[in-house]
Amino acid sequence: MNFHYHLLINPAAGSGTASKKADQLIDLFDQHDYTYTPYYTTYAGEEKEIVKRLIGLLTPWDEELLRRSDDEPYHLLIVVGGDGTLHQVVNQFYLTGINLPVSYLPAGSGNDFARGIGLSRQVEKAFKQITEADKPQKINVLLYEEKIREEYGLVLNNVGIGLDALIVATTNASASKELLNKYKLGSASYGLYLIKALLTQKTFPVLVEVNGQKQEFNRTFLCTTTNIPYFGGGVPIAPMADPKKEMIDLVIIEKPNPFAIIRLLVQLLQKKHTNNKHYRHFSSSRIRIVSVVPQHGQADGENMGQRSYDLYFSTSSQYVWYADE
User: Fold this and answer.
1) Which residues have C-beta within 8 Å of that of residue 44, sequence separation ≥ 6?
2) Would you tell me the crossing angle of helices 186-200 and 175-182 to the nearest 10 degrees?
3) CA distances from residue 237 to 60, 62, 125, 254 in whole angstroms, order as listed
4) Pairing between strand 158-162 and 248-254?
5) What distance in Å separates the CA atoms of residue 55 and residue 72, rounded to the nearest whole number?
6) 218 three-state secondary structure
7) In angstroms, rounded to a whole number, what is the distance separating the alpha carbons of residues 73 and 12?
């Protein structure tokens, strides 16, 4: 297939990491004489405006395209940025109702989506995975509807209420995140604020409806619906999650005492935390979560604010253009 690559670049992602990776990617496109057009965001949220302008140009996916023999180019969007940038892009796709594939060069702080689907975070390897693929891969995504504020959208990674969302809110507002990204330690910024969040996050009640049954958890510490195993820059909170399956994984952790927290963290690093008595896991294609006590929320690392939530989750799909390593 003959490609025209459209590069949507958020140079601020990863505290400037995306700008450097974009330069490397463009050098590779020049070396291989590929046709491409770059688009740089200059302010927060501009990626949505760029996508709106490109939607009529980008090529929807159809299996018949594999048998097309003409020279008409296939117009593919490649996002260069963090999970938050990709989140904004695919939500614009979702709002159009058109089946548009997207590709991705991970260049943020956490890069959990790329880690979860097996897309390299190294520029040259990711370049090969993108350009050597002849078709996109179908990735499961989460659809959510928040009834209180009548919000809805699409999530690639996870939606969290409680501990992980508090870490996101604290980290994104911190000056140390930029410093750590400068030395390629972006994931460490989450770790730094994990300890603070462990000390400050209070328990809260949640009501969960899953597989036709309601359950209440009164000492919730963390409540996360996820599509991939990771959050917070590589923390394997749900190692059983698989983005190729049409399923939602829900993790609830009820707050243990201080000594038990240390044990849970050690188990988490060893990927043995799923056996901890404070760890609860559910799996379903539809889930409802109600949190009446205001808590921090996050979607794909984007701060949703501190408020009450009544969330309904279901599954959908998004085509991502890459080949497995």
Assistant:
1) 12
2) 150
3) 34, 35, 26, 14
4) unpaired
5) 17
6) strand
7) 30
Its pTM stands at: 0.90
- Output the tens digit of pLDDT for each of the chain's 325 residues: 889 999 999 999 988 899 999 999 999 999 999 999 999 999 989 999 999 999 999 999 987 776 666 678 999 999 999 999 999 999 999 998 888 999 999 999 889 999 999 999 999 999 999 999 999 999 999 999 999 999 999 999 999 999 889 988 887 665 544 544 454 445 555 666 666 777 788 999 999 999 889 999 999 999 999 999 998 888 899 999 999 999 999 999 998 787 788 888 888 878 889 988 999 999 999 999 999 999 999 999 889 999 999 999 999 999 999 999 7
Tell me the three state secondary structure of residue 170: helix
Task: Report the distance separating Cα 135 and Cα 39, nearest Å.
Answer: 23
- Rounded Cα–Cα distance for residues 94 and 100 (Å): 9
Amino acid, single-letter form, for residue 105? L
